[in-house]
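[Discussion] Sanity-checking designs against the backbone

I'm trying to build intuition for which residues belong where. Below is a structure token string of 127 positions. I'd appreciate it if someone posts a full sequence so I can compare it with mine line by line.
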């Protein structure tokens, strides 16, 4: 018996859920539905029912809705996750340093030290 509940997800959460459903279905297709079924010890048809988003008992829809509601998401295993605030700080530092550069040679300031020591350094504009 299936109890149909009112969808409590926001539009954004519903979009996340659909995206996750798509990612999971694509991954199952790549890995073959029969292999997935064997791995978890169920029939291939069971996996098919779970993945059928039109089926009211679809486990993928329920699972992805739950993840979206909880603020979680599905990502590839090799994906790295970073704190957005830390990335923002690093981006601002990098941007600030790039704005200080006037030309490509500014990247090679360590080379200038060597050139000064060798007596071969030529300041900008003196070529």
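Best answer:
Here's mine. Compare freely.
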């Amino acid at each position: 018996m299936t109890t149909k509940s009112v969808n409590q997800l926001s539009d954004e959460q519903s979009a996340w859920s659909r995206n996750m459903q798509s990612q999971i279905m694509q991954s199952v297709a790549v890995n073959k539905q029969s292999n997935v079924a064997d791995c978890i010890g169920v029939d291939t048809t069971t996996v098919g029912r779970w993945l059928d988003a039109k089926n009211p008992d679809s486990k993928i829809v329920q699972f992805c809705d739950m993840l979206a509601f909880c603020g979680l998401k599905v990502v590839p295993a090799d994906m790295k996750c970073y704190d957005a605030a830390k990335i923002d700080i690093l981006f601002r530092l990098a941007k600030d340093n790039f704005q200080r550069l006037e030309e490509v040679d500014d990247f090679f300031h360590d080379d200038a030290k060597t050139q000064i020591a060798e007596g071969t350094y030529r300041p900008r504009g003196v070529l």
